[in-house]
Design brief:
This protein is of the alpha+beta class and 378 residues long. The protein has helices spanning 3-19, 24-35, 63-73, 79-85, 100-103, 107-113, 149-173, 182-187, 207-215, 231-244, 248-251, 281-284, 305-313, 317-329, 332-339, 343-357, 362-373, and strands spanning 39-46, 55-59, 118-128, 132-141, 192-196, 202-205, 220-222, 225-227, 258-261, 267-274, 291-297. The chain is built from 17 helices and 11 strands. The chain has a 5-stranded antiparallel beta sheet. It is globular.
Length: 378
Amino acid sequence: MSDAAQLSALIGGIYDAALDATLWPDVLAASARFVGGVSAGMCFKDAAIKGGIPYYYHLGIAPHYTQLYADTYVKLDPGTTSRVLAEIGEPVATTDFMPYDEFLETRFYKEWARPQQLADFVTAVLEKSATGAAVFGVYRHERLGPADAEMRQRMRLIIPHIRRAALISRVIDFTRTEAATLVDLLDGISAGMFLVNARGRIVHANASGHAMLAQRSLLRADGGKLTTDDAEAERALYDVFATADGGDAAVGVKGIAVPLTANHGERYVAHVLPLTSGERRRAGASHAAVAAVFVQKAPLDIPSPHEVISKHYKLSPTELRVLFAIVQVGGVAEAAEALGVANSTVKTHLRGLFTKTDTGSQASLVKLVASYVSPLVG
């Protein structure tokens, strides 16, 4: 199969997984093969939801190591902080946040990655909110070495589609709806859902969708077409509707998370899923629909203290890791143990922190972080 045919089939599978979560393991396996990896994973973390990780798909990592990561090594993973700071949708590899030679000296690599013959993990943040994030990533085998330009480029080809499917999958999965058909499933979700044709005409809406239209605050059905007061958002949606009839790959990065604002100021987000290929055709065929539009309230867009401090003081991901390790666990030796690096490495980054933050002691760094984390500290 050519690269183009492989990519087309993969994108179709990705979108099918949006409506059928049981397909994610196969999709992850195909994604790993396409980008040049040996395994892949995707997780949704939200501190506001009991259990912490409501959805987690993984393929190619032995259950023993998956559990070890969750229990111990997630705290030692140098990439954890970098993913908090990464731009949404941009692939990030080890060398983006630390020298590779330094990575090879970490406990995370020696105790978790090397025993599995893993050389790198290329990740992309799919969504960020005040309380959590959604992340997709592919592991690279040591025989291929660290991620290269080709792997990054192939990641960029599939990340927009993974992102759209993952966010829609979460909207549907939260309902745990028992449905006989895909249309029944879509009708049963709590988010507003609209099936539309290539011209944006509404051919079907669920109960939540009808309620949104009746309020006429966020969306309307003018002449039967789905419209909004926000001209830019409406244009973004109609671009997707027009291209959806051309197949999954044609949709590209459009319509993944279109921001919408109601008349009273509440913020929403719309996700568009093409329905013209794969198993999704069953959902749209009876209504002559080319796309499904899912509309729900947007998560709070509040940057984390990590992001605020990093941007204000222009800290590198490694400096930020050292800063929070000093704050959370204590001195140089304790921070080095927590991060899985040498004491000398922590001391080097600590000197950089003192310079960038205009502080001269670890106690001053603790006070600085507290001023960002707690609203009660002046």
